[in-house]
Every structure is written in structure tokens, then in C-alpha cells.
Amino acid sequence: MNLRTASETLSFIRELEEMAAKFYEDLAGRFPENETDFLAYAKENRKYNKQIQMAYQSVITDAIEGCYAFDLESDNYTFETDLPESASLAEAAAKALAIEGKILDCYTVGAEQSGSLLADVPRNFKIVLRKRNDRLEKLKSLA
Amino acid sequence: MAVLDEPIKGVPMAKNFIDGEWVESKGEIIDVVNPATYETIGKVGISTKEEIDSAVQAAQAAFHDWRRTPAVARCRYLFRFRELLEENFEEVSRVQTQEHGKCIDESRGETRRGIENVEVSCGIPTLMMGDSSEDIASGIDEYLIRQPLGPFGVIGPFNFPFMIPLWSAPYAVATGNTVIIKPSSEVPFSQTKITELAEEAGFPPGVWNMVHGGRTVVGGMLDHPDIQGITFVGSTPVMRDVIYPGCGKTGKRCIAQGGAANILVIMPDCNVDATIPGLMTSFFGNAGQRCLAGQTLVIVGDDDAFYNEFVEKVTDRAKNIRVGYGLDESVQMGPVRDAQKKESILNYIETGMKEGATLKLDGRKAKEIIGDYPDTCYLGPTIMENVSREMRIVREEIFGPTMGIIRTKTLDDAIEICNESPYHNGHAIFTSNGKAARQFQYDCISGNIGINIGIVAPMAFFPFSGMAGSFLGVLHTQGKEAIRFFTESKVCIHRWL
């Protein structure tokens, strides 16, 4: 599906972050030795959702091109969170990296498209991208 | 994408709020229709002269104590009000979409703009401060204080049912006046929700009043000797023929904001890709129903290749705009407010064609409406070429999703077209040349000037300006000018012997 408006794009991103948060909560149950990290990722995802929602609600005005800010193909960024019961920690981390890759791509392209149109929203996309670096390093070390 | 939940349920009655009480109007009851679905979503009364008189009486009675409430205490009511608006941000935004038809992104934008005015008015202890001079003559001091005047009337339009009354009302009550709001009876529920929140914020009875209705209420406000001033946003004929002379007759203060037919100038050096989304928002956002919407696009220069490529890109983007119910998050353009307004827009398109314009994009019938809704109020974006400056589609306000394109050789010609317009609200230029931008800003007669901005909507701490056919009065709504409007300057000179 082609996403154009700020409202539908942010709803889509919220869904991605929430799906990933649930995925990490599942991993926390499966791999108790990494529970702290995985629960922290889930919490961060929800924090990012709030941060971006706040940026959107703070900056959205009728002088800004909210209905014309994006041109994203949602199919490029959707992901499955299913993981076989027998999956090892390395396999789980690899899956998490794949999910993170989709989310990062979505933020990156979204930030480029809305860069001159939505002010604080693309800026916050970039902040979220930056904040995920530590997580990516940790997941790579597990994979 | 799913359609978001509708907040207005069960065909409620929009009641008046007078002296802290919710009362049903004794006047004729009319339906409120959602233009997107064409369903009746509520009812509203067309209030009588007695009802507006009773609201003025309440506002006048409340004024005595309210003006004596210290500014720091008054602003605490506004802080509470602001918090409640923020807590109800999503609901009030959806109410706007449901009763007006605009897209949810646009409604949220309107909510934010409205709240910003409440935020600015929270600074009233500082904003209302006067001036002083010691020793204007030896041993004599002089100072100025700002005092409130009494009840004010706030008359709102249909196109921004939430935001526009908030350009005035928070400043009026912050400065110690009382207020009576008359929303457009087409869209009464946004102000009803705001007033519920004002009640919850605890404003004393009679400080914040709301009376629904039409001409009788407006006439009642204009004629009433206790109303100290009126702020009005609506059409130019009503502004010019009713509001402004009506205020003059009874010596009221007046801010009267009328219509517009804004012109956006494209220079060949503009950043095309960044410009086009701005044009979509300006011409087709809010289905063209705003006084800062672009109506005419003037493309400068004799480079045919640039012109053709630019127009193709604009047309391509416009023809793919998704039209439908604004509570569907994927929709980019909602319906116009009612069938009569749609008819008026269609008539303008016909007039343009009769006068020689040609249709580049025909939006007289929406190509596709997302969702299963009757097309009663829907239009698609329309683009007309071969438009010339004397045509009615340039000189009169269309208030719909149309773009007429004119070509000129020079920027001077483009500015002349802007200055010939009977309206001077929000003209804009798109360019990467600072000299051209400055010339436009300097020479173009317009209350608000956009440079690479399609909708020149001033923030709450700036006045919402406007000139000539778009405005009558001296001071404007919003910010410091609103504080001046809602207060009398009293000068005191002291000598102690």
C-alpha cells in the first residue's frame, strides 16, 4: 500500500514498532539470560512511538504539508515476527536484525521524503535511527 | 487504512451555553450534516434575539467580578483549559473532520493552531502590562494601564470550526473581558466541545458563553449596546455590508476578516520538487476552503519547456490526490462543506471556461471516492490553463479545490496581478532568488506574504494580518494585537503635592 499522509504513515510506523516490541517481549520469555536487553528494546520501541507522536502533534499545522509528506510503499517495510519454537538465540538475534533493518529503512526513507515538509517529525526519525545503534551492535554480537 | 472512529454519535443536539448552563435553543432546529457521508449527525437551534440578549446579560453581569480577578489567576483558568484541550486533542480533531469534512491531518493541524492561541494568552500577566515614564515633568509621573471593556462577540466561520474562534476568545477572557461565541450553525460541535472543556476548566458562569444561530444572533450582537466589540471571520460581503457598518453604527470595536483569492507566483528558479507539495496543500488542502488557499498560480518567464514540465508535474500530482472521508487516514482531500458550495464552485469552473480558460484537469466529478459515500459534496482537484487576470476565476473568491494558471513574462507583471486583486490576504512566491523574494515581499500588497510557503498562516504570537477586501479594521486577531484590541489604554498622570 502506498502511504502518503502523515497520519497513515505514522499509524503504520506505530504498528511496526509495536509488533517489534511484542517480538522482543517474546524473546525475553524465551531467552532469560538476555531478558533485560530484550525488555529494554520493547520499552524503547514504545518510547519511540510516543516521541514521534508528540513531534507530530506538536508540529502539525495547516501550513505544513501533512497530507503530501510521504510516498512510502508499506510492503517494503512489513515483516513477520514468527520464530520457530526451536530457534536458537543466534537465530532469534538474526531475525531481530532483519526486523530492525526494515524499521530503519522505513525511518530513513520517511525522513528523506518529509525532510523539508514536516519539520520535527523527520528530525525525530533521525534521532530514533541514531538511538538504535547500540541495540544493533548488541544484536549483531548475538547473531 | 481503516476509518477512524467517529466521536459524534446518536444525533445529539448542540445546545447554547449561557451563564454556565446548557440550554436548548427555543428557535428553529436544523440538521447538522456530515458532508463526507451526507448523514445527519446532529441538530442545532437557530437562536432567537431573546436568547442572545440573555447571553449578553450574563456576560455583562459576569464582567464585574471577572475583571477584578487578577491576571495571574485568570491565566490559571487558561492553563487548565489548555491542558484539557491537549488531553482531548484527538477527539476534538475528529469532531472537526466529522462535521466539516477536512482530512484528519488537517483537523489535527487546526487543533494545534487553536491550542497555540490559548498558550499565548496564558502569558497575559506579562502581555497586558502597561508602560510608564517617571518625571515627564519635574515631580510628575505618567503611566499607561490596559483595562478590559466588557462582553465581546466572536463570530466564527464554517471552514475552521475549532481554530478561528480561538484566535479571539482566549485573549478576550485573559484580558478580563467576557465572551459570547457564535459558531457557524453548519459546524456547531467543535465549539460545543471547546465550551464543554471551558466549563470543565472552571471559568465562572457568564465568562464564556456560546449561542448557536444565524443572522438573528449576529444582528443581536451588533445591535446590543453592552457588546463592546466583535471579531468576525467570514465572507467579504458580510464583512463589508453587515459587520463593519454594524459595529460602526453602535461604536463597537471591530476585527472583520473576509474572503480571499490568493495568488502564488512561481519563478523558474524555484525548487520544483519542494514546491509541488506546498502547492497541493495550498490549492487543494481543506478542499480549497480557506482564506489562505491558493486560487491562481502565476508562472513567470517565457521558457516553454519549464512551463510545460512544471504544469505536467503539478497536474500529475493533483490527479492522484485521494479523495474521500477525512477520517480515513489515507485520504488527502475531503468533500466541500455542502452541496450548495459545490454548486457554486462548479459554476465558477463553467464561468472560467466560458471566459476562455481550458481544463487541464477536470475535477467537476471526483475521479474516485475512497469508500462507499454519495458524491453530493465531493469534487476532484481542477486545474485550468489559459487563464487571464481579468477573469472572474481570478478576481472573485471561489473557495474550492481549483487552480487557475496564468503565464507572465516578468516578476513585475506577477506582482501587478497580485496588486490588482480585490483581495490581499496571503499571496506567495516560490523562488531560490533572494532578490526576487525581497522584491515580492516589498511590493506585493498582502497582509501575509509567503516565500516558499503555500499557506501563509501566522503563528499565534503574530497577528493574522490581511488587507483591503480581505480585512476591515485596524488591529488583528492573535498575539499582541489581540491584547490591544481587547483592552482600553488608560493613561494616568500623577502629581503628589
Question: What is this structure's SSE topology?
Answer:
The complex is a heterodimer of chains A (143) and B (497).
Chain A: E1 2-3, H1 6-30, H2 35-59, E2 72-73, H3 89-114, H4 120-131, H5 133-142
Antiparallel strand pairs in A: 1-2
Chain B: E1 13-14, E2 16-18, E3 21-23, E4 28-34, E5 39-46, H1 49-68, H2 71-87, H3 89-100, H4 104-121, H5 124-127, E6 131-137, E7 140-148, E8 151-155, H6 169-174, E9 178-182, H7 189-201, E10 208-210, H8 215-223, E11 229-233, H9 236-250, E12 253-257, E13 262-266, H10 272-284, E14 294-300, H11 304-319, E15 323-324, H12 339-354, E16 358-361, E17 369-370, E18 382-385, H13 392-395, E19 402-408, H14 411-420, E20 423-424, E21 426-430, H15 434-443, E22 448-451, E23 467-468, E24 471-473, H16 479-485, E25 487-495
Helix pairs in contact in B: 1-8, 2-4, 2-7, 3-4, 3-7, 8-9, 10-11
Gist of the model:
With 143 residues, chain A is mostly helical.
Feature tags:
heterodimer; A: 143 residues; mainly alpha; Ferritin; two-stranded antiparallel ribbon; 5 helices; 2 strands; 69% helix; 3% strand; elongated; B: 497 residues; alpha/beta; Aldehyde Dehydrogenase, Chain A, domain 1; Aldehyde Dehydrogenase, Chain A, domain 2; 2 domains; seven-stranded mixed beta sheet; six-stranded mixed beta sheet; 25 strands; 38% helix; globular
